[in-house]
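Lay summary

Proteins are chains of building blocks that fold into shapes. Our project writes down both the chain and a compact code for its shape. Here are two examples, one after the other.
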Amino acid sequence: MKRAREMKLCHAAARALGWYLMTPPYTVDNAGKAIPGTINTKAKLSEWLPYNHVFDSLAECKKALRENPSFFKDDPVRYQANRDALCVKDDDPRLPK
């Protein structure tokens, strides 16, 4: 089993100015399906998973946040993780440097 974070690019190395849509970490099985009960909304923000896009404004990030969960209706764990997502400014001190 792999953690979803391991499957993402390291966002610290690719940081750009703007807003990140971050989802809580969860674990996936060998087939890439999220495992129920593994969402950790209490994890440090530095462990949350960045959406593969940097938004220019908070408004754009919030729009994606409203629309994002619908992409994962076939995967209830990812759907819930996306419902728990938040918009975070790139200079938030809780993010890795």
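And here is the second example, written the same way.
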Amino acid sequence: MAKPIKSKLDQFAETLAGMEAEKKTLAEMQAWLKEEGCSVSVSTLSSYLESQRSARLQAKLLGQITSGANQCRAVEKQFAANPSPELETLIKLHRVAVLQLSTQAQADPELLKLVDQLANTAISFASAQTKAAQKERQLALAQQKFEESKKDEQSKALEFCLEEAKAFPEIQELFKAAFAALKKAKGK
């Protein structure tokens, strides 16, 4: 990060910010500065005020990021101590946030976009959860059907072999020997 450049206006920063908040013109600010013994051009004053606004905005944004990070850490700490909420609870909380933003949106119409985005996010999340649960059920059902069909095929094959073996006594003896060998192997 670049080191801030010092300005002869730095000593007047708070007063100038106050004058700016009072909607004083650049000419009025320049005249006041001249009375204070600081001669500066309007363009230099304008650039200085813009850089100060930018610095304040950046500090505010960094503060919001820090606050958000602190809130995330607090939530994660709570989740570590307590189980995370179910989807239904999250949707209820989301609904409360949407309602709060909706009431604030009367003062700030930009919040309506945020309300819409939050609502769409909640709906998308719930839809994705439902689709995932449905896919899971479909996979379980397909697995069950496969296992049943495999058992049916094995049963049919065994029944066919046993029926055919009745006609051939030598085959019956081979089956008996095979089953005896299996029984002996399982016993070990």
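What can we say about the second shape? The radius of gyration is 39 Å.
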